Amino acid sequence: MSGVSTRLVRLLNMVPYFQANPRITFAEAASDLGVSTRQLRDDINQLWMCGLPGYGPGDLIDFEFSGDTIDVTFSAGIDQPLRLTSPEATGLLVALRALAEVPGVVDPEAARSAIAKIESAAGTLSHASGSVSAEPQPAPAESHAAATVREAVRAEKALVIEYYSASRDQLSSRVVDPIRILLVGDHSYLEAWSREAEGVRLFRFDRIVDAGVLDERSAPPEPVLQNPPDTSLFNPESETETRLPSATLRIAPEASWIVDYYPLREVRELPDGHFEAEMTYGTEEWMTRLVLGLGDVVTVLAPVELADRVQTAAQAAVSAYQTAMATVPAEVTRPE
Questions:
Q1: In the chain, where are the structural domains located?
Q2: Domain 144-229 belongs to what topology?
Q3: What's the pLDDT at 262?
Q4: What pLDDT sits at residue 15?
């Protein structure tokens, strides 16, 4: 479990813990909760900012300190059983099902169990409003690689992964020290310290072909662990992306789906129905393959070097096809 998840679980349990142990000392509570006294004080300061909507002084969790002891004076209902309205249950079920379909983020079986329990608890509301499905959904299949990576992150173990790099179109083996799992947009990523690159890298789960847990602790450099996740590459306005090369594309009207499918910037619809847009990319090799795969519905307008490379690659492909067809016996190619 990541540091953030561990702390969240601890924070959710702290108020009931203090209510069950009134006037407990900081030292005793820290020992029971398995944290330092300083971390306990930081957690309490965090809880002071949590509470009920309105989030005014009378809505937030509150404590009373007498000497070195702690007592809860207002729990903001965190110690009460959760009661969901029908819309709340529906929203939670939709979110859980979406998470269960993203590899590596949650255990699909655990998600299915939670979904079934919520559906069961919300059954009365479901029949009344029809907004919550009464039928449990099957747990999506989880790949061996995704399950292995998730287990390594939880156990804080190093990993060896077989990873497909789309930008280089090649499979490579890497030894990494997992840090955390991130959800960015519609994809999950393993954030890890790459020993080969000697730096932090993001590995997309659906491109991790295989994974194996090593018999050694995950040991990324300590300064790396103190840094928040760096997802600036996915921000169209980030400095990281503005440093990447950019291509100007002309997209045919029948391929308008590309505008929604790929991360394009400055999309302009032209009078003839075509679209013109900017797209950043990591390497020319990757961008050339992408454009070739899209066929004649996409044309590279700039930079000239990329347009020439795409044209050269297309001509080479046609030439190779013609050469291959010339060697095929006539009786094979002749139609019946």
A1: 3-74, 86-129, 144-229, 239-324
A2: SH3 type barrels. (2.30.30)
A3: 81
A4: 87
